[in-house]
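Input chain follows. Return structure tokens only.
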Amino acid sequence: MISVKSLQRYPVKGLSAETLPFADLSPGETLSGDRAFAVENGPSSFDPEAPSWMPKIKFLCWMKNPKLARLASHYDDATSTLTIENNGAKVSGDLSTADGRAAIEAFLADFMDDEARGALRVLSSPGHSFSDVAKKVVSFINLASAEDLGRVLGAPVDPIRFRGNVHLAGMEPWIEATWVGREFQIGEAKFKVRKTIQRCLATHVDPVRGVRDLDIMGTIKNERGDLDCGIYAEVMTPGRISEGDELKLI
């Protein structure tokens, strides 16, 4: 049986994953609150009044800034408050207020030091997601594929390296790559697989130490002939998905 092992969202692009017991999904949308914020690293030209997709290099991200993985963060939806911790240092800020954003920006500017390309600025816009792709989708990671990479590398591969929303158990390694164009159902929610996910240097980053330590991209390329691991699927029918739910191919 293919099942949901875990669910995670990333409220702030480049910061910590937050594990969810369940997620209520709407057609054509991401998980609620996923990548709702990003931190501009120098001028990006992002316009909150007319938001549009921009590449991740405009923002703080693991691909460019591996040490971000050392930060532990949590976002509270009820209070709009982001909390970040690093080696005993801690900051909290209400991201709905200028003062709250300024506190977060100052903490991150100090942490990033010479990796800051200019002023750091917390960005958001209602309904916008700072996803790696323009289309609003949900990302799925086959845990067996991550385990297979670990076998080849001779070291465990933490699936959080892939920063996916849904971790799936009970599959054959790499079978997800054959699902493009297919539909599946989890709970009442139905999905259509739009594309495989091309990986970047973010996957080389140890999620605990914040350093590049494994050649994930090179290993996938050598073993598979591409750079893909995981799939993007669009929500077609609304519904709740939860840990332990079965995935059924349609």
